[in-house]
């Protein structure tokens, strides 16, 4: 008995490991394409369903895709309404794994070709081209998945030779609705324990194939797995903001509503699937395909029924998850939990959001300096506190984003994404330096008014013009933080940087000339030269930002 249990666990471990490798390699192969699909997502709920379906099919993991969707909501790149459509599509997309396993794993002896496929993939693992290596990893994961399934089928005792197992299960069958709810609960618990609807589905398919359970029981367990799989996104959302929690909660609500109507119409629904799919559903050999059909039809019908109520689902989630003003702000979702799938290839959206926010802070600080220099407010101290808070936010966000990017880099990333992470780390450092320069300008402006340093009237216009030039440069790099930089952009960047250098040089000469004419203005002019130096530094760092982005493309 102990040997059988260990064999089953080992088989499940190989299946899960194969699924993990296959999913991660697919993310590497299509990560940038997936992020592009997510970025161009519109508010059309039907397009959202299609996008969610496509993304889940491409990564072969509903857990990974739903966590990614919650991540995009947390980053503010998707609204709650947009995410709901995608979650619906992800539920349909996850049924492709069911079809893949039930068709190839039980209908055909694909394990016979799994080893040759892995043998052909072996040289690819040592290829120079990253895409070939990723393809090799995918083939290895594919082979391990079905070899694990083969071992699982062999390890699970046949019901004919072990009738006592059926006797144990029969104690819970034949009780009508109570039996359905018992096996529904079993499906929920099973998925929570293994933390993978694919593994839970493989266990259920194997139990059905070996004759342990009949078709209605298998359907009840499958319904439970649809609820159990929502725990992953909810665990990931624990470290996210309110919108992320609401998106995860909608995933749970959506599946629960579907299970409620499916239980209410359970017998007619099961009979309909039995009549719809050829072959006899009572035959264990054909049962896996019937289960795949049931799983797909359930999710398609549930989406069709609820897609017209997306706004209502969003409002329900908002009522269930209150927006607590006193709750501390969350920068990033927590992906450190071992129960949350590793999707570093897809989780750069939050870092991109942080870069955009840091870019906005650089602009706010320079604008704050310009306003402070030209028109100091009556309550100067309050304004200084506001600008100091901006500088603190930039420091905090830079640290959090750097740590987050390093965590992403510690996972399996494609060469392209790893280069992008390296570029983003440099951009974060440059933006933080720009914020430091901006805040130093604010302090210099405050000192000017506090020390009553007087400048000629033309200096005010010069500072205003210089600030506008810097803001133009900032707007330029901010618009390229997510779209990338092309050669023509670098030509513009060098022109702006040269213009800033020439501007600073000319203004510094004028300042030195004024100091030579009158020694009384030395302190004011030295303050002014410090401002010019910091403004030139901002131009240099702005160019560095664009150079870092260019190296990534």
How would you sum up this structure in a few lines?
With 553 residues, the chain is an all-alpha fold. 78% of the residues lie in helices and 0% in strands.
Q: What keywords describe this structure?
A:
single chain, 553 residues, 22 helices, 78% helix, elongated
State Rg: 30 Å
When the domains are counted, the total is 2
Task: Figure out the total of helices.
Answer: 22
**What is the element string, with H for helices and E for strands?**
HHHHHHHHHHHHHHHHHHHHHH
Largest sheet: none
| Total number of beta strands | 0
Low-confidence spans: none
Distance between the termini: 57 Å
Q: Which class best fits the helix and strand makeup?
A: mainly alpha
Mean pLDDT: 82
Described by the principal axes of the CA atoms, the overall outline is elongated
Strand-residue proportion: under 5%
Helicity range: over 70%
Describe the protein's topology:
Elements: H1 2-39, H2 45-59, H3 62-74, H4 80-93, H5 95-107, H6 111-121, H7 130-155, H8 163-170, H9 177-194, H10 197-209, H11 215-228, H12 230-237, H13 242-264, H14 266-276, H15 287-306, H16 310-320, H17 349-374, H18 380-410, H19 415-450, H20 457-478, H21 487-517, H22 522-552
Helix pairs in contact: 1-2, 1-7, 2-3, 2-4, 3-4, 3-12, 3-13, 4-13, 4-15, 4-16, 5-10, 5-15, 6-7, 9-10, 9-11, 10-11, 11-13, 11-15, 12-13, 13-15, 13-16, 17-18, 17-19, 17-20, 18-19, 19-22, 20-21, 20-22, 21-22
